[in-house]
Each structure stands twice: as C-alpha cells, then as structure tokens.
Design a protein that fits this description.
The structure is a homodimer. Helices cover 43% and strands 13% of the residues of chain A. Chain A is an alpha/beta fold. Chain A folds into two domains: 49 residues, RecR Domain 1 (Helicase, Ruva Protein, domain 3), CATH 1.10.8.420; 134 residues, Dna Topoisomerase Vi A Subunit, Chain: A, domain 2, CATH 3.40.1360. Chain A has a four-stranded parallel β-sheet with strand order 4-3-5-6. A two-stranded antiparallel sheet of chain A has the order 1-2. In chain A, α1 packs across α2. Chain A is globular, with a radius of gyration of 22 Å. The model of chain A has no long low-confidence stretch (mean pLDDT 90). Chains A and B meet through α1, α2, α3, β2 and α5 of A and α1, α2, α3, β2 and α5 of B.
Chain lengths: 199, 199
Amino acid sequence: MNLSSPSLEKLIAELAKLPGIGRKSAQRLAFYLLKQPQEEVENLARALIEVKQKTRTCSVCFNLTEGDPCPICRDEQRDRQTLCVVEEAHDIFAIEKLGQYRGLYHVLGGVLSPLDGVDPEHLHIRELVERCRQNVKEVIIATSPSAEGDVTALYLAKLLRPLGVKVTRIARGIPTGSDLEYVDEMTLLRALEGRSTLE
Amino acid sequence: MNLSSPSLEKLIAELAKLPGIGRKSAQRLAFYLLKQPQEEVENLARALIEVKQKTRTCSVCFNLTEGDPCPICRDEQRDRQTLCVVEEAHDIFAIEKLGQYRGLYHVLGGVLSPLDGVDPEHLHIRELVERCRQNVKEVIIATSPSAEGDVTALYLAKLLRPLGVKVTRIARGIPTGSDLEYVDEMTLLRALEGRSTLE
C-alpha cells in the first residue's frame, strides 16, 4: 500500500514490529498518535529512549533496576534467607503485586532447554549457587509450569540441596475461579497429586 | 505496584494510554522493548517524533500527507470528476488498498452528530461543496453504516444534488464469507432491500 506520508508509513512499520501488534493495530495506533498533541507523543518517545538509557540489571538478583543493587535487594526489611527463583524480571512484578512475599529474588534469564541450546551456563545459575552459600534457608522455584520449567526446577533442586538449602516449588493445580470440567487433564492430575488435608 | 525502575514505570504508563493497550499489554511491550537493541528502540522513538513533525493534512482533500496537495490530489492519472467522501483519512487507506478506485477523495473529519455537538460547520462540508462546483460528476459517500453515517449521507445528498452532482452511497449488505444465520436483522434487511437482478 502506498501511503501518502512516508513518515506515517515508517511509524506503522515500527509499531507493527512489536509483539501482538499486527499491521491493522499498528495503523490504528499510528492514526491515534497523529491526533494526539505533540507533547503527548514526545512524552512517549522520551520514555522509550530513557528506559533504554537508565534501566540495567541488578548485579545481585538480575532484576531490572535504575540503581544497583535494585531496591528489593537493598531493602533491609526483607527476609534475606529466602530467595524466589523466577525466569524473567517481569515475573518479579507479578509476585510483588501480591504484596505477600517478603523474601528476595533471583532472575534466571530463562529456563533450561537443551533443544533450543539453553544450557545451565546460559542462565544465572552460577550466581544463584554463590548466593545460596551465604545464609540462604529456602529457595522457592517459580519457573513456569511447563516441561522446561519443571526440568529447570529439578536441576536446581539437585544443585542446591547439597548446600543445605530447602528447595520448594510453587503449587500447580486448578486456577481460582475456573470450572473443573474445562480444566485440562494435566492440570487436573497435578491438582489431585498436590491435594492437601483439610483440618 | 512499586517497580524498581521509574523509567520503566513511566514507559508502561505512556504505553497504557494507547487505545486497546491495557496495563498488562503495556507491561509486556515495555519488557519487550527493553530487550531490543538500543537502535531499534531509537528508531521507534524517532518515527514517533517525525510523524508529528512531517505529517499534515492536504489542503484540498484533508488526507494525511507530507507534501501539499497530497499525492492522490496531485496524481494526474486519476479521475478528477469523481470524489469519494470518507469520515477519516484512514478510510482512504482502506479503499486505496483495493487498488480499484481511481477517483479523488474528500475527508469529512467525522460524521454529523447533533447530540455530540457535531454540526455541518465542524466538518469539511463547505470545502466539499466548493470542490463540487468545479466539474465534479459523482460523489460516492462512504461514511460508516451507522445512523450518523446515514444522516450525513442524506444531508450531503440534499446539499450536492442541486449542483448537478450525482450522489451515491456505498452498498450495505451481507459481508463476504459470513453466515446468513448469524447476520444481524438490520444488515439482512438492508441486503434484501439492496438486492440486484441476476442477468
């Protein structure tokens, strides 16, 4: 399609590169942005540039942060004997939103997946072992409930238990609010296996 | 939620202002952008700024363009006796994509909607009348198939017919590939009313 404005065409092409945004959505966003005041659009452009300039990974837990170590690692109020292992930094935000967990985190940067060429040395596992040597009592593994997430959890458990660390895995089961009859077999199986006694 | 990076929080807030992008999608986009090379993110930021600086509306048809008049109005190959009236500039792109229409366009900038305070003087109707005084044979009204779109079409027809211009409206009916039983009543009614003879 030959748009009458190359700069508009360029913006649509750039927006369409984003995940989950197809050509149509990109077009809609571009036209919306064109209608916004100059200042609004500049705010977005500035936010894009600043996020790349300012955000780095925490040298302790590999969370995304502007200062190093990150505010969670610096927080003296938190339980330093518990680490929650997650795949990516955005998983931290999901858990922090609950406002319940008071321990620290460790971002792996992915999961073990030998078929995709992801071996232990590609993840922040060495650094996790290092942290576990320093007065860590429990490591909660919150990798995703997939085959790779499970393999990674088992691998870490084998590695960390000899250090005298308790290794736990977040529960799998029926999600709250879902209908039993629509839950897949694997989830139902895990829910049965993981049943707990009602006191 | 207290993110550990204010610049990331800012980007998420800016992205969440876009239509159809909620907080979750904004978060996903922001994390995606953080993982992209600096250059990619700068390209997007630059595209945002340039589109606002370079794109203006055509003084003839109110299409979005970088040069004035727009490439469609300047194109000597096009049929200058036919105008297609659309609500917004993005409608032009939808029609141009077909590659079938060879006339010119006229962007109204909306539809008549007295309840929302949109009266004829808020749309580019005066300019349309001006153009119709100059050797225009047919005006195809392609406003949306809504009550407001229909009212606008009727209003324009009344206004332009006295100038000796043929005023037509794009057809309404069953969309291609849809199932008759799932089509709403109004659409089906219009499809019946607009039936054509099979030769």
